[in-house]
User: Fold this.
Amino acid sequence: MEQPPRSMTGSSEHAWAGAARAQADAQAGTSQAPARMLPVGSAGERSSGWLGCLMLIATEGALFGYLLFTYLYLAVQTTRHWPPEGLPKLPLGAVNTLILLSSSGFVWLCERMVRRARVRAAVVSMTVAVLLGVVFVGIQLHEWHGHPYGPVDNLYGSLYFTITGFHLAHVLIGLIVLVLLGVWTALGYFDAKRYAALKIGGLYWHFVDVVWLFIFTTIYLTPYWIG
Amino acid sequence: MSDTPAFAKPGDPPGTLRLSRPLVRTPFDAAGAERLAHIWETRPGWRGWFSTVDHKTIGLRYLVTSFLFLLLGGIEALVMRVQLAQPNATVLTPEQYNQLFTMHGITMIFLYASPVLSGFSNFLWPLVLGSRDMAFPRLNAFSYWVFLFAGIFLYASFPLGEAPNAGWFNYVPLSGLTYDVGPNIDVYSLGMVLLGISTTVGAVNFVVTLLRMRAPGMSIDRIPVLVWGTLTASGANLFAVPSVSLAFLMLWLDRRIGMHFFDVSGGSHALLWQHMFWIFAHPWVYVVVLPAMGIVSDALPVFCRRPLVGYGPVAISTVATMVVGFVVWIHHMFATGLPPLALSFFGAASMVISIPSAVATFAWIATIWTGRPVFRVPFLFFAGFVLLFVIGGVSGVMTAAVPLDWQLTDTYFVVAHLHYVLIGINVFPVVGGIYFWFPKFTGRMMSERLGRIAFWLMFVGFNLGFFPMHIAGLLGMPRRIYTYGADMGWTTVNLLTSIGSFIFALGIAVFIVDVLYSRKRGPIAGNNPWDAPTLEWTVPSPPPPYNFAVVPTIASRHPLWEGRMQGEHEEGTHEGPRSRLADGYLLDQGREALGTTALEASPYVILKMPEDSYAPFWLGLMAALFFAGLALRAWFFAGLALVLAGVAIIVWLWPERELIQREPTPVARS
Amino acid sequence: MKTAPLEYLAHAAGPASLPTQRLEWALIALVCAVMIIVAALLVGALIRRRTGARADPSAIGAEAGGMPWIYVGTGLSSVALFAALVYVMVTLESVASPRVAPALQIDVTAYDWWWKIEYRDADDASRTFVTANEIHIPVGVPVQIKLRSADVIHTFWVPQLAGKTEMIPGQINEQWIQADTAGVYRGQCSQFCGAQHAHMAFEVVAQPPAQFDAWRRAQAHGAAPIGSSALPNAGKRLFDERCAGCHSVRGTDAAGMQAPDLTHLGSRRLIAAGQLPNTAANQLDWIQHAQRIKPDSMMPSIALSASEASALSAYLATLQ
Assistant:
């Protein structure tokens, strides 16, 4: 029904005039330099997955930040006994922290072994990392069991179990990731040039460990400082 | 160490995947385009419908779905305005009114305002950036499915008369189990956590796309302002969304698991909710306006026949607004009894945040003044937007004044302010943007005549409806009241508002009619009906599935205006830069795109893009069912959905040869 | 007779609200000026005639040019904002707390959907009492209000006397009010608090000091004896049966804690948290049809026969 509108300047040939000129330039002046070689696909830190994992870490880091903010906001203003059963016991938590951090080391080692084409050493290293992670989970559950209160008994309990529970969930997911990485490594999926999944999964695991340091400090150590 | 020759050998089997390849420039040719179409197109029928990862399809789905929610939220508003048109009306019971105003807020703020901008960004980003797709096509599809399911989830209890009813801001203790025993708040809480997943993965996608999927030469100072707006909003979302997701999760844990996060008698603080909610919700208001401001910054100059004045300052002001937007949340809590010293800081920040907005406002006015306006429909919306932006902004400055806010807060003055900023800064640019990009979406132009009618109905109706709300607020009318007495002095302003809102709704209806009519009957549009400068206008309307037959190289912000702008041919100056659009990188060994560096955009990796997949749909469905199980307290069902979701993720992430995530097929060694 | 009881732009009655009113007028003037200037610039930009090269339809303007708009516009806006900010801070300082120590402290506790008002005197128990929905203050002196909530978050707001402050369960907020002119000032809850948020109003009656003292002394007494007439006594029995579970009347056995104290019901101007004028007919209407007047409120609609109604009414008439 309506006429197509008069175009804004009368023609849109200008754009292609410019483009045609560029094309003539390209054909006239041959490319003297050899064409650049570019990697193809998921190339380590050039893979989109690496960047995506960094973004995930940013947002999950914020999530843990808000959890710890909630804890500190309430801890600083509380008029009650905090924690209700007295100051947290440090030795087991500290040992558990070291266990988790060392498992990160074995994940890193696995990646290095794959890059050196030593697949069996890599799988062994990953297995050790997974076992250390399982020990961490076990100790954490043991600590949970040792508290006289649960998540629904009081405010501190709700905070403690939810914060450590969020972290534990991340550890469990991380363990599944590590197991899958171990399986894929054993199946020969990765070599010196293609190991992006190992880097990315390893990054996630390192994040989970670093977050634990913040949680440990907030929940285990700050009661000694806030008083 | 390279184990592959520099150039592909003739004897290589078909489909050989090399770890590295030379990047070769070729001119555009029709046969190559045909091959690319075959590689990139989605299967027809329902199979393609569930498995497509094409950003253009996903973008249009976002647009259509968010408009459906706009209409739903609008109907809720109109029913409320019927109730409020007269004092002591009995059209609605208090409970009905409370559910309506809550759902109106939730629908507009979460299910329309941000997803509609995601729709624009999803469709446009690869096209304006010179790319074949977003960085994570499957994640893109997933974010849409979760949005759709979350929207349905949030409305699930509405037909039962149990919609969320404690306001979109959902303060405790009113939203706790003691005062709200039904499923209303459970639906809201779990629905918001689900929706947060969509928002977060969408944000990840936008940020990574920006960092690496730009055409060569599109350095960071050449990207369109829409991209700056969405990028800023996405970065903010990564840091803000967890706060509200956590708050809602904690509320649900309190309500149904028996925890004590918000248990005042157990030692918690009611203000904890307000902090966590507003730490998210204030940045959120910039999430829903900055991309829309970017739409205006990109499209308005086209109708002024000159580039935007002050691109650099406008880009910086976008980021500055968002950054400052993280330290003003207390201005929603001025009346909560916090110490005046804290209030002073946040009040000052809340006034300072309008300075970047002033930069943008004067940039727009200057662009119109020094340009030559073309009075087509999109331009009407963008020009009207500038006025509404200023009105909304200055009413915000008034509420930022702490002692004055003690009078204005929780009155209709704030309702007026928020509608000027949301309708003025989001809806008007969105409608203008649809008029502008409709030819690119569909290949047809919308109607100038219907567009003008829609604009004037919307503009007049909106101002008639919402300007009197300022007066109502100054006359002391509180918010969120289902009725009022005849002797309060609010009768006239409420009647005007109700009339105005119906006129505005009529304008929206005309717009919808125009969309539906023009889809089938609008005049056919060519590549560039507006003679606009940016890359999306170099490809056909609608674009082919692969976007660009050859990936172009960019040399300026206005590739299609190069060589035509005044001042480029003056004596003594050499010719301006020239983008290369007709030749570029073919990248046709399967679905491929070019990855470039973050700041300078020089090529550094050839990306293998995934095929269509059902995994995003299945994962989205399992996620929704998991939350449905929690809402119904069907724990086994929820656990099962979680396990199936995990399976879907593992299938999705399993390393694929085609994407060279694992060792490629070995090449026969010579 | 005020046309809009909650309006605060034209009426500010004391030092807790007057500085804010002046600030408000100043900011309104500023924002109106800004809106007019921007609208003029916008219209000017739209309609001004372009000549020469500018008028060529195929020309595209240069990217440079126009920057002074941003510098000047942002610069002027910043100056105006900064000036406004200084004025805001000065106003905040003057309304945040009174110049002299408050002469009186009143405790207000918000309930769904009414207001409990307590006057306490640590030294003199005879001046301590509870009432509901109507606050009296002496004219010309600052009065400190301690704000609590019994259930959800409410907000105390009497606009012509002061800004608003939330009443948050688990914490005690404070604000001050002062009326320099005698009169009745309306207030309303301003934080969404559930079904009857719309109908949770109150009044502040500012009186010359002598009258305030008299009111206070009268309120502190318990209910007067009702004598021996049959009707009021029948009404009192009915009250004790049907109403005393929630309502209290000091000096009798009625000691309910969940609803307004009715000891001096007759002295109030309004009932049902500011909804109805306090007349005998309205009292009966409220008792029998509360759920129609204020649906979902805590007050049930109580069916009364005609004789019950007149007995109850006679009893309530004694609660002056």
Remarks:
- Chain A touches chain B through 75 residues (CB under 8 Å).
- Confidence is low (pLDDT under 50) at residues 1-32 of chain A.
- The two ends of chain A are 79 Å apart (CA to CA).
- Chain A has one domain: 48-226.
